[in-house]
Amino acid sequence: MNNITRVALIGGTHGNELSGIYLLKKWGKNNLFSHWPQLDLTQTIANPRACERSVRYIETDLNREFAIEGLLDSQRVGYEQLLAKKLNYQFGPKGNSPVELMIDLHNTTSNMGACLMLLRKDVFNIGMAAYVKERMPEATIFFQDNLPEQRKRFLVSVAQQGVTVEVGPQPNSVLQQETLELMETMTRHILDYVVLYNEGNLGSLPTEFEAFQYTEDLVLPTDDRGQRIAMVSKRLEQKDFHPVEPGETIMETFEGVPIHWEGNYTAYPLFINEAAYHESHSAMSLSQRIIVRCADYF
Ligand SMILES: [Zn+2]
After folding, report:
1. CA Rg, the chain, in Å?
2. Domain count, the chain
3. What is the pLDDT of residues 27-79, one digit of tens each?
4. How far apart are alpha carbons 10 and 264 in whole angstroms?
5. Which Gene Ontology molecular function entries are recorded, alphabetically (predicted)?
6. Which of 151, 160, 207, 224 lies at a C-alpha separation of 20 to 30 Å from 230?
7. Is the pTM here over 0.90, yes or no?
């Protein structure tokens, strides 16, 4: 792969996730973007109007508007739909973008800590994961390279490579120092990694590291009027990336009937009770714990 020099750092894709927005402000004020002179590093607030109002989006979720068909569809003229076309013009076009890496900064209300979310398992991404995990052992590496195609409509999909920094728990429209610090630490490691990757100067990476692999999403059951009839079990509250064995209670109906995890594998939930997934009645996503051996990719 070519050198990665054009790097776009994005905040405010969701206007009520404040860490990314304020990280860009902070770095701008302290002139930190010049800390990586080897990179052509740009910073962009993706959805300024949503940021102004401190809402996730104005009309539709911007981070789901980057399917190729949607970007080419002249009928799609909603606010975020047009904004997606503008961003695709600015950073893309998707599939033929000059931007080698996009880093999108997000918050979650779930207790996921500092999570590096990756869309590919290639040398660049595996190396980044190993590098970040070694320097930031508290970080969680999450691979979503197996997401269904219709779910990969993220802003980062416009660039040649894209990673998401997802840090929580932080309530929407709130800025917490610890969360900002975690995001800053992870983002610095990513940018340091890119410089060393280009120089071929990574030194020795760990031979293996722990990660989590997306498996599926679980929704809360609803009645025939679309009303929820259950909630996430208190046993799982704040327990993102903790193991759940088959047969364990994961939800409970309002009549007090437990709902069990019926899969046949030890699941590691994430995005448990994430506020933004209210409309979809999502209860959580599930993953499996994996050990990634770097030698399998290098
Ligand atoms: Zn977000």
Report:
1. 19
2. 2
3. 999 999 999 999 999 999 999 999 999 999 999 999 999 999 999 999 999 99
4. 38
5. hydrolase activity, acting on carbon-nitrogen (but not peptide) bonds, in linear amides; hydrolase activity, acting on ester bonds; metal ion binding
6. 151
7. yes
Instruction: Kindly state whether residue 199 falls inside one of the protein's structural domains.
Output: yes
Residue 297 belongs to a domain: no
Distance (Å, whole) CA 292 – CA 262: 26
Question: Which of 206, 237, 271 is at the close of a domain?
Answer: 206
Tell me if 35 is assigned to a ligand binding site: no
Is residue 283 within 8 Å of 251, Cβ to Cβ? yes
**Can you name the residues that pair with 288 across neighbouring β-strands?**
213
76-131 pLDDT, tens digit each = 999 999 999 999 999 999 999 999 999 999 999 999 999 999 999 999 999 999 99
pLDDT one-digit tens code per residue, 244-291? 999 999 999 999 999 999 999 999 999 999 999 888 999 999 999 999
- pLDDT greater than 90 at residue 2: no
E strands present in 154-281: 161-168, 208-219, 230-232, 249-253, 258-260, 268-270
- Give the position of tokens 């980044």: 128
Residue 138 Cα, ligand 1 centroid: separation in angstroms?
21
Asked if 222 and 254 touch (Cβ cutoff 8 Å), the reply is no
* Candidate list 80, 100, 166, 274, residue with the active-site label: 166
Same domain, 58 and 172: yes
Residues 259 and 178 in one domain: no
- Output the CA 15–ligand 1 centroid distance in Å: 8
Q: Is residue 118 part of a domain?
A: yes
234: Cα separation from own chain's centroid: 25
166 part of the active site: yes
In a domain, 295, yes or no: no
* pLDDT given for residue 1 in this prediction: 59
Sign of CA dihedral 118, 157, 214, 9: positive
